[in-house]
Design a protein that fits this description.
- By secondary structure, the chain is an alpha+beta fold.
- The chain has three domains: about 120 residues, Umud Fragment, subunit A (Ribbon), CATH 2.10.109; about 190 residues, Immunoglobulin-like (Sandwich); about 90 residues, no CATH class.
- Helix content is about 30%, strand content about 35%.
- Strands 10, 12, 13, 15, 16, 17 and 18 form a seven-stranded antiparallel sheet that branches.
- The radius of gyration is 44 Å and the shape is elongated.
- The C terminus is likely disordered.
């Protein structure tokens, strides 16, 4: 009864979630075509939609288009009263039809890639005819096999009177059948419990989450410097390049080059402004900001700026400041060149606006400019999804970011180190629950169709003591019932009697007449005692001899 109830529950759940509208259910199966929902949906995918109480902006839903006369699966981008505005993720236009609430068929519940193409294949005439032929063959074969089993069973019942001994492996085969049934049933029940637990976890979690389908871009500034001095022992060529030491006594002017570049694998169109600042920081926390190059406008993804820096003026300025706040000297001061780059435009046809403020920092130590390298400034405003990185003492600083439109992404769950989507997990859990329930039900039906026949085992063990009789058991007095066949066999052996056997309808009766007292044992269809044949008192081979 419990198995039957579980089977009914499984069928009810399957019907509730998967019954199509053509059969009275509420689930619709939509096979996608076209490119309007790429990259998430492709032609031949199967979308399973179910009606919802409320439809929200951002959800993927299906509606009936009165203009196209077909079902359209797009994303809701706005709600105007009782009408909904739809747009394909890959379209650059809004759907011309704004369906009303009554035209909506449901929101996306499950997405099965390429499953729609498989369903289309099943609809083909050749495949459908093949499946029908295979189903008819299975049904005819199953019915024929059941009829043959019924004839063999009746033939065996009619021929029970020849007191023949059945093959020795009959008992082993029956026990194997019982063990197979128990193993299959326990395995199916365990699988159903696991699938039920997985289904509870999957259906209590949201299937989708908010996300941004970002297109990455990178902003990069490369610094360099050059100077010209009188050739001598320190600078034999009279040229100073990036990476060379800079001595204040020999170099009066330093030319700093700032190269800005925005790169992305997608198409970009940006403009911007750049301003170069000089930060001067003292040992006591004093600082001063000076403008080296005022804000200038540029177009395109890159710009180059030459920054003249008079080291003589910087040293004089620091000496003056030091004389005012003490102590006198240049030690403990550091200087940083900061380009402030602000860009705006589009990346992958998506708006972008960001500010990048890297730093080229150096210290004044013993009359020398000691460069610390370039880094992304903490004051920079990278925008969403941006990350700052620097490799010191490199003269290059970079900052990454991404642009994209808001949307939804499939929520995932990590199982044994692997991530699986919640919609897929729901599908697998329900499918596993249905299959395990069917396996348990089929094993039970097969067990009932091929019962463990106790009469067969009685005949195989004690056939040499059994004599078939014709007619009923009207002896004139009530017989004495014994609990099992072993008790009846002991009575027969103690009195050296034979066991009389008769069959009426589906009841087998075994009798032993012991000096006027008749002892009886009856076998009914459900009167099977497992373990009854665990120990054998008589060897069938010896009995046949």
């Amino acid at each position: 009864m419990l198995l039957a109830a579980a089977f009914v529950i499984v069928l009810a759940v399957a019907w509730w979630y998967f019954a199509p509208t053509q059969l009275g259910g509420s689930t619709r199966y939509v096979i996608t075509h076209g490119t309007s929902m790429e990259p998430r949906f492709h032609t031949g995918d199967l979308a399973i939609v179910r009606p919802a109480d409320h439809y929200k902006v951002g959800e993927i839903a299906a509606y009936w288009s009165t203009m196209l006369h077909t079902v359209v699966l797009h994303r809701i981008i706005a709600v105007h009263g009782d009408h909904y505005v739809f747009k394909g993720d890959n379209n650059n236009f809004i759907d011309p039809i704004q369906p009303a609430r009554a035209q909506l068929l449901g929101t996306l519940w499950l997405h099965l890639p390429r499953a729609g193409a498989f369903l289309d294949l099943l609809h083909g005439p050749a495949v459908a005819a093949t499946l029908c032929a295979a189903l008819g063959f299975v049904l005819l074969f199953g019915l024929g096999e059941r009829r043959r089993r019924g004839r063999r069973s009746r033939k065996g019942a009619a021929g029970a009177g020849d007191a023949r001994i059945l093959p020795v492996n009959a008992r082993a085969h029956a026990i194997a059948q019982r063990m197979n049934f128990g193993t299959v049933f326990i395995a199916a029940a365990s699988a159903a419990a696991i699938c039920l637990a997985v289904a509870v976890v999957a259906f209590t979690r949201p299937s989708h989450r908010a996300s941004r389908d970002g297109t990455p871009y990178i902003q990069q500034v490369t610094f360099g410097y050059t100077a010209h001095v009188t050739p001598g022992p320190v600078y034999p060529t009279g040229k100073v390049s990036t990476g060379d030491p800079v001595f204040l006594r020999l170099i009066r002017d330093l030319n700093i080059q700032v190269h800005y570049q925005l790169t992305s694998h997608a198409q970009t169109s940006v403009t911007g402004t750049e301003e170069i600042l000089l930060h001067v920081n003292g040992p006591s926390g004093w600082h001063r900001n000076l403008v080296l190059v005022p804000s200038t406008h540029f177009s395109g993804n890159s710009t180059d700026t030459a920054v003249p820096l008079s080291l003589t003026k910087v040293a004089s300025f620091l000496v003056r400041i030091s004389s005012l706040i003490g102590p006198v000297g240049l030690g403990g001061y550091d200087v940083a060149v900061e380009p402030v780059v602000h860009v705006a435009g589009t990346v992958a046809d998506q708006p972008v606006e960001t500010t990048f403020r890297p730093l080229l920092t150096f210290e004044i130590q013993s009359g020398e400019l000691a460069f610390s390298g370039a880094s992304a400034s903490a004051a920079s405003a990278p925008g969403p999804n941006a990350e700052a990185s620097a490799a010191q003492p490199s003269y290059t600083a970079s900052q990454s970011g991404a642009v994209g439109r808001a949307g939804t992404a499939t929520n995932t769950l990590s199982v044994l180190g692997a991530s699986i989507g919640i919609p897929t997990l729901r599908w697998l859990a329900l499918l596993g629950l249905i299959l395990s329930g069917l396996a348990a039900a089929l094993s039970y039906v097969r067990r009932r169709a091929e019962p463990f026949q106790e009469t067969t085992h009685i005949q195989s063990h004690y056939g040499h003591m059994i004599v078939p009789i014709v007619g009923g058991e009207d002896l004139g007095w009530p017989p004495v019932d014994v609990p099992n066949i072993k008790a009846l066999v002991k009575l027969a052996e103690s009195g050296q009697r034979l066991i009389l056997h008769s069959r009426a309808t589906d009841v087998d009766t075994y009798l032993v007449n012991d000096e006027g007292t008749v002892y009886r044992y009856q076998v009914r269809p459900s009167n099977v005692v497992w373990g009854e044949w665990s120990d054998t008192t008589t060897n069938p081979v010896k009995a046949a001899a």
